[in-house]
Design goal:
By secondary structure, the protein is α+β, with helices and mostly antiparallel strands. It is built from eight helices and 14 strands. It is globular.
């Protein structure tokens, strides 16, 4: 969930010469400080621009989506960040109207920096794409920093060899606080440090919208593996992309996993490797949808592959 970091603690660490390494959290940077002989001011360190990993499918679409989301989440403190964010989008050639589609990202009076964790394909045709961008938004307001992670569904169209952002279909949802009705399986997943997920996914779980089979599966996987979870429901296309079929994500019956044990799925696509072995164990465990870099059980089986699923594991249940 969102967390607040006390300014006094950050400033004390900075003055003592301490700095967090941020290892294991892509894009995470420690707040920097500007100090004189009498004061220490906490500031947000600028984010690093996303660069596609080797072998990424449709790297141009991922780059364009990541750049747009970074523009939407990077601004100086003001009473209304919208004009500055709109200008940044314009410099990218992206529609200024994206500002109106992503108001939860614009916090009056706060400075903001967006760290791109990973952009995963959510759908693809010859002329259109969905890219689900996980962004860690660092917000500094009144001397206090908080961090929110969202999965944002960015839509793009292809013009020749280039991709252009056209809209934001989901800005990652609204915060939900776990209540007393949260199931034991949901509570276990939310507390598991091996399951790294955006707050968007946490809000799905806390709101009771995720199938118990998915929660039980994630809890079991978290025993032996560290997973980077892209999306559960919020932030994923409502329908299977470019079809009339409602996605199992929308129904709370699927999860997308972009990294396993600290390595992106796109970096471990060997058929004889440990990730493929993990996928085989999921099939043996009874999942009815398993998208990934391989078709492990032939035509008509639960396992399938295509370009979209080269960069993640899609694990779900039909009904």
């Amino acid at each position: 969930m969102s967390r607040w970091v006390a300014t006094a603690a950050v400033a004390a660490l900075a003055l003592a010469g301490c700095q967090s390494s941020g290892q294991g959290e892509p894009g995470r940077r420690s707040p920097s400080t500007a100090s004189s002989t009498t004061t220490a001011q906490v500031r947000l360190q600028p984010a690093v621009r996303y660069q596609p990993l080797p072998g990424e499918p449709e790297p141009g679409a991922k780059q364009a989506a990541a750049d747009a989301v970074q523009a939407l989440t990077s601004y100086e403190a003001s009473s209304d960040p919208a004009p500055a964010v709109g200008a940044a989008l314009g410099r990218l050639g992206a529609p200024i109207g994206l500002v109106d589609q992503t108001r939860p990202l614009l916090v009056a009076g706060a400075s903001s920096t967006g760290d791109i964790v990973y952009p995963q394909l959510g759908g693809l045709t010859s002329r259109s794409a969905s890219v689900m961008v996980i962004v860690r938004q660092r917000l500094l307001k009144g001397g206090t920093e908080r961090t929110v992670m969202r999965s944002i569904d960015v839509r793009l169209t292809r013009a020749g060899v280039n991709w252009a952002v056209t809209s934001i279909e989901s800005a990652g949802g609204d915060e939900v606080v776990p209540g007393p009705a949260t199931s034991a399986a949901a509570a276990a997943v939310l507390a598991d440090g091996n399951l790294e997920m955006a707050d968007s996914a946490r809000w799905d779980i806390a709101g009771g919208g995720i199938d118990e089979r998915i929660l039980t599966l994630l809890s079991k996987l978290g025993t032996d593996h560290r997973l980077g979870i892209t999306v559960l429901a919020t932030g994923h296309p409502h329908n299977v992309f470019a079809s009339e079929s409602v996605s199992n994500h929308t129904e709370g019956r699927a999860v997308d996993i972009w990294s396993v044990d600290g390595r992106a799925v796109v970096e471990q696509r060997e058929l004889a490797g440990p990730l493929a072995d993990l996928a085989r164990s999921l099939l043996a465990g009874g999942v009815t949808e398993l998208g990934g870099p391989w078709d492990l059980d032939g035509p008509g089986g639960a396992s399938f592959t295509n370009v979209v699923h080269q960069d993640h594991l899609h694990v779900g249940f039909d009904r």
